[in-house]
Specification:
The structure holds 2 protein chains of 2 kinds.
Chain A (H helix, E strand, L loop, with lengths): L20 E7 L1 E2 L11 E2 L5 H14 L7 E8 L7 H15 L1 E11 L6 H10 L3 E7 L3 H7 L5 H14 L3 E8 L6 H13 L4 E6 L7 H7 L8 H17 L3 E4 L2 E3 L6 H7 L3 E5 L4 E4 L2 E5 L3 H10 L4 E6 L2 H12 L6 E2 H8 L3 H14 L3 E4 L2 E4 L7 H5 L4
Parallel strand pairs in A: 1-4, 1-11, 2-3, 4-5, 5-6, 6-7, 7-8
Antiparallel strand pairs in A: 8-10, 9-10, 12-13, 13-14, 15-17, 16-17
Helix pairs in contact in A: 1-2, 1-10, 2-3, 3-5, 6-8, 11-12
Chain B lengths: L5 E8 L5 H11 L17 H6 L6 E8 L5 E8 L7 H8 L4 E7 L6 H12 L3 E7 L8 H12 L7 E2 L8 H11 L12 E10 L3 E10 L2 E2 L3 E4 L5 E3 L2 E5 L3 E3 L2 E2 L4 E5 L13 E4 L18 E7 L5 H14 L4 E7 L3 E8 L2 H14 L4 E3 L6 E5 L4 E4 L11 E16 L3 H10 L3 E9 L2 E9 H4 L3 H8 L5 E12 L1 E8 L2 E2 L5 E4 L3 H15 L7 E7 L2 E8 L15 H16 L2 E3 L2 E3 L1 H7 L10
Parallel strand pairs in B: 1-3, 1-4, 4-5, 5-6
Antiparallel strand pairs in B: 2-3, 7-8, 7-16, 8-15, 9-14, 10-11, 10-16, 12-13, 12-15, 17-19, 17-20, 18-19, 21-22, 21-23, 23-25, 23-26, 24-25, 27-28, 27-29, 27-30, 30-31, 32-33
Helix pairs in contact in B: 7-8, 12-14
The chains are: A alpha/beta, B alpha+beta.
The complex binds guanosine-5'-triphosphate, iron/sulfur cluster and magnesium ion.
Chain lengths: ~400, ~600
């Protein structure tokens, strides 16, 4: 297969402070829905795979936004790897064609362990992807079962190993902690497992019960014990301990990376950067305008086929909203936010208005300040919402 | 109508024994309400009455009845409420009657309000017609209870009417008995007008409607009249009867019961108990009035939204037009903002007022823990009234604290005598008397602090006696007691809304209950929150709400920042709506829940 502009398959660890431009591509298909999942994804839509890929390509080609070479591309889902590498390659090529991609770009695809083997990774690398985010979630069989994952722990480790063998350099392992079935040892073993498998990036998310999911119902009806925030806080600390010892550093609430391996796409979100979004329910943002596409794959496809816009909704934020939003996002990053930069961008008084609250929170040891930078204290990482909403 | 053909009666009974249902049958049998228009408890017209299935306000109605002697009689009937909170409605109704129908549920027998209402009727010198109702019930024991009732009244069991207000069985005979046994009114038709106001309500369209009974003379439409007590002089714009709907009449004769509309806009100017006379006769002797309802229970009522304070004031003003028993004055609380200290007849009354405020005026309210009114004798010799625990002076200035006592009457099956006595003793009760109504039923009289019974006493009594015991009480003056104020502190800040005055021996229990409740109600914060209960500076109970450890969204799925922002904005809005006590954020619901008390005396 050919790619109009082939980005290098391994990128150097450095990326500039300039957030760049991202492209998100959504693949809304899964084999089986996991019990906790409220993502925009659907089972049993195999018949839509081909038309969906066509629609995606067309939609990307028709995109009328200001083209800016992508510094990061992210194929998320759903389970992108339910599509054939060629299909995924076609979509990536369309992105390259439309927006351009910088040579050092980070091009990530989410991978479900049960859908891939070494040849898949080889094909995906060839198609231009250079970073794999593997949905490991846990290495404890009973946890995987409780979550409704259909792969084994062994299969997840095998996926990491296969990616390495195929020559992948950037590997993320997605983990979920604090599920009702997880014992402390389970969590430690999962961390050890992905560290040993040489992942250089770990995303560890506290299990969240989302309304409408089977798990939420099970808990609401008392058949499964509720998740415990205190336990989750403990697990977060355990994760930090293990990962730090293995040379990782936390750069965002839920994300750890080896030096220079922080996900550029992830950082883009948290630094209020611009990104296009393609596919069913994909979100996009450019300079304070946020919009999203038709959520249902069928609606997305038919919009494309009828030649009408796939945009389903948007909001336009003025400076008085963008400032607080930038704070809300930036404080998730370990580096925090540059308040004077925010004031320059979003208006006089932005700081003054919040100074008393900031003062109090700094005094209480919940926020830290150095120069014009403001960040959450380490101990407040897991309290981010409570603290941030006081600053909005 | 001439007096010989008039009868004025009230239906009295314990709650739920079927007064309103009997009234239905009487309305039907006399053709006052047609079968097509009939609905159950016809005279319970307020929404609240219909929803709760209880009578709150007494209702008067006129019926014409053709008796077996071929004559037409005018029967003025008043249906009264059974709940203890509204006992004063009964006493005012009795002032407009010459006889009562005393109803007893044939499956329950005599209960507390049966006795209190009977005593009221006997004191007023009224003819009592004893009736066993609900004889259609499979559980009815008419023979047994007829015996009991006969013994109580001092008549033969055969004199007790046995009826079913539901099926109508025995009601025709009852109508005859009313004509035969209730004496006609005794007033002087030729004397100057004297009419007793026994109820007074405000109507948005017509102003104040005064319900009255003409004792002497007659009252004519468009006549110049005067209210003796208030001195108000007005013209009688409209005079009429309830039949059962308001029906204007040219005049009301001696003995008759009806209503008067006179352009008066405030109930307090046409007061219950006042005497109406003609203008040129305003020096006439007033008729004996009856005791004004006196608030027994006090609580602060606050709007959840501080901005609603003016609305609450308007709402209370409007409600008071119709509810002479409601009193209020503005107060402020650091925890709850601006509100009103309100006085109520009892907890059911409080609950009803609150429900009406919320429903009819679309307000969302928080009520503080209800308390009774205290009198405090200061070391200076001065005596002050305290309706709000926070107004209690420093202990060093207090000589003595007086609290209201009540005479409590419990009627119970003898099997539960010990249980009831134990309960009363545990509430600082003093046994006054015991009287066996029959071998199976006893009435027990205690003197007790009102503060001990307004909370869960009734619920306790009911549950400990499997629902068989019933309760009534009436004020019995103030007595000195060992009372202390318990404060509740959040992170060392006293929360005025939670302060309460309790007996020294109960202070620890109150403190413990409140701190435990609050520990469950106060959401975890960014730091540990100690919750303490204290008497003065002495801590008597302590709990801690541990600092929360996790409050963070795991991720920002697929770049959906909008969703995350909305989530945080909601959280921020939630914080904005919380009350700030020092550094502690307390949701309104915590106040509402912590201050929730179980109603007492509500129908079971
Ligand atoms: N089976 C039966 N039920 C009755 C009879 N009379 C009343 N009831 C029922 O008893 C309940 C209470 O009746 P009400 O007429 O509301 O009683 P009340 O004495 O007016 O009650 P309050 O005004 O609240 O004190 C209702 O459910 C009636 O249907 C009767 O003769 N037989
Ligand atoms: S694989 Fe991912 S997207 Fe698919 S159902 Fe599971 S959690 Fe949801
Ligand atoms: Mg009734």
């Amino acid at each position: 297969m050919t790619v109009a502009f082939a980005p290098s398959s391994s990128r150097s660890g450095e990326w500039s402070a300039e957030p760049g431009f991202g492209v998100y591509v959504h693949i809304p298909f899964c084999r089986h829905r996991c019990h906790y999942c409220d993502f925009n994804t659907y089972e049993g839509l195999d018949a839509l795979f081909a038309p969906y890929v066509d629609a995606l390509v067309t939609d990307i080609e028709r995109w009328d936004g200001e083209p800016s070479p992508a510094t990061s591309v992210f194929f998320g889902g759903g389970t992108p790897t339910l599509l054939a590498p060629e299909q995924l390659g076609r979509v990536l090529a369309a992105v390259t064609e439309r927006t351009g991609i910088v040579p050092e770009a980070e091009i990530t695809i989410e991978v479900n362990p049960e859908t891939v083997d070494e040849t898949t990774f080889t094909a995906l690398l060839e198609a231009g992807f250079n970073r794999f985010s593997i949905g490991v979630q846990s290495l404890a069989p009973h946890v995987l079962e409780g979550l409704g994952r259909t792969h084994s722990a062994g299969r997840a480790l095998e996926a990491l190993a296969a990616a390495r063998r195929a020559g992948a350099s950037d590997l993320n392992a997605d983990l979920i902690y604090g599920s009702p079935w997880e014992r402390p040892g389970d969590w430690a073993r999962s961390l050890e497992g992905v560290i040993d498998a040489a992942a250089d990036h770990v995303s560890a998310y506290a299990l969240t019960l989302e309304e409408g999911t089977p798990l939420h119902t099970l808990v609401a009806t008392g058949r499964v014990p509720d998740v415990d925030g205190d336990v989750q806080a403990d697990r977060h600390a355990v994760a930090d301990g293990y990962l730090r010892a293995a040379g990782f550093e936390r750069y965002e609430t839920s994300n750890w990376a080896q030096p220079g391996r922080a996900s550029r796409h992830n950082v883009l979100y948290w630094s209020g950067g611009n990104y296009a979004g393609f596919g069913a329910g994909a979100h996009a943002h450019v300079d304070g305008r946020r919009w999203w596409s038709e959520r249902l794959p069928r609606d997305f496809i038919s919009a494309v086929e009828q030649g009408v816009t796939t945009e389903a909704g948007f909001e336009r934020l003025d400076d008085s909203q963008r400032g607080p939003e930038a704070l809300m996002l930036g404080l998730r990053l370990k580096s925090g936010v540059d308040l004077s930069a925010l004031e320059r961008s979003y208006g006089e008084g932005f700081l003054a208005e919040r100074e008393p609250v900031i003062e109090r929170l700094v005094g209480a040891g919940l926020l830290e300040r150095s120069g014009s930078w403001l960040r959450l204290a380490e101990q407040s990482t897991m309290l981010a919402n409570d603290i941030i909403c006081r600053l909005l | 109508m001439d007096q010989e053909h008039q009868r004025a009666i009230a239906v009295i009974a314990h709650i739920d024994h079927g007064k309103s249902t009997l009234s239905d049958r009487l309305l039907q049998l006399t053709g006052t309400v047609g079968d097509r228009d009939m609905r159950a408890q016809y005279l319970d017209r307020m929404d609240l009455e219909r929803e709760r299935g209880i009578t709150i306000k007494a209702a008067a109605v006129r019926m014409n009845y053709k008796a077996n002697d071929g004559e037409i009689y005018q029967i003025n009937l008043i249906d009264t409420p059974g709940h203890v909170d509204f006992g004063y409605e009964v006493s005012r109704s009795l002032a407009a009657c010459d006889g009562v129908l005393l109803l007893v549920d044939a499956a329950q027998g005599i209960e507390a309000q049966t006795l209190t209402n009977l005593y009221l009727a006997v004191d007023a010198g009224l003819e009592v017609i004893p009736i066993l109702n609900k004889i259609d019930l499979p559980a009815a024991q008419p023979e047994k209870y007829a015996q009991e009732l006969a013994q109580l009244i001092g008549c033969g069991p055969e004199d007790v009417h046995q009826i079913s207000a539901k099926t109508g069985q025995g009601v025709p005979e009852l109508l005859e008995a009313i004509v035969e046994r209730v004496p006609p009114p005794k007033g002087e038709p030729d004397a100057p007008l004297r009419a007793l106001v026994f109820d007074s309500v405000y109507d948005a369209y017509r102003g104040v409607i005064a319900y009255l009974r003409v004792v002497d003379g007659r009252i004519k439409s468009r006549e110049e009249i005067a209210f003796i007590a208030t001195g108000v002089e007005v013209e009688a714009d409209e005079i009429g009867i309830m039949a059962p709907d308001p029906t204007p009449m040219p005049e009301l004769e001696t003995g008759e019961v009806g209503y008067l509309i006179s352009g008066i806009k405030e109930v307090r100017l046409a007061k219950v108990g006042d005497t109406v006379t003609t203008r040129n006769n305003r020096d006439a002797d007033p008729l004996p009035g009856y005791r004004e309802p006196k608030p027994m229970v006090f609580a602060g009522i606050y709007p959840v939204e501080g901005d609603d304070f003016p609305l609450l004031r308007d709402a209370l003003d409007k409600l008071q037009l119709n509810d002479a028993a409601l009193v209020y004055e503005p107060e402020s609380s650091t925890a709850l903002g601006f509100g009103f200290r309100c006085g109520f007849l009892g907890l059911l009354h409080m609950e009803i007022v609150r429900e009406r405020l919320e429903r009819e005026f679309d307000l969302s309210l928080i009520a503080t823990a209800p308390s009774v009114g205290y009198e405090i004798e200061l070391t200076s010799g001065q005596r002050i009234e305290v309706h709000n625990p926070t107004d209690m002076p420093d202990p060093s200035q207090i000589e003595d604290v007086y609290e209201p006592f009540v005479d409590v009457l419990v009627v119970t099956p003898t099997d539960y005598t010990g249980t009831v006595m134990q309960l009363c003793q545990g509430r600082r009760g003093d046994l006054q008397a015991m009287n066996y109504l029959s071998p199976e039923r006893v009435e027990i009289h205690y003197k007790m602090p009102l503060g001990e019974i307004i909370f869960d006493f009734f619920d306790q009594l009911k549950s400990k006696t499997k629902g068989y015991a019933s309760l009534d009480y009436e004020p019995a003056g103030m007595q000195p007691s060992k009372l202390v104020r318990v404060d509740v502190l959040l992170n060392a800040q006293p929360v005025d809304a939670f302060s309460t005055i309790v007996h020294r021996d109960k202070a620890y229990d109150y403190g413990k209950t409140m701190t435990e409740r609050l520990r469950k109600l106060i959401p975890r914060q960014l730091f540990d929150v100690p919750i303490q209960a204290a008497i003065g500076s002495r801590i008597i109970s302590r709990e801690t709400v541990k600092a929360k450890r996790k409050d963070v969204t795991a991720k920002c799925y697929g770049g959906d920042v909008t969703r995350k922002r909305k989530l945080l904005e909601r959280q921020k809005e939630g914080k904005r709506r919380m009350k700030q006590i020092g550094t502690v954020e307390v949701p309104q619901t915590a106040f509402i829940e912590a201050l929730r008390v179980d109603s007492d005396g509500a129908s079971s």
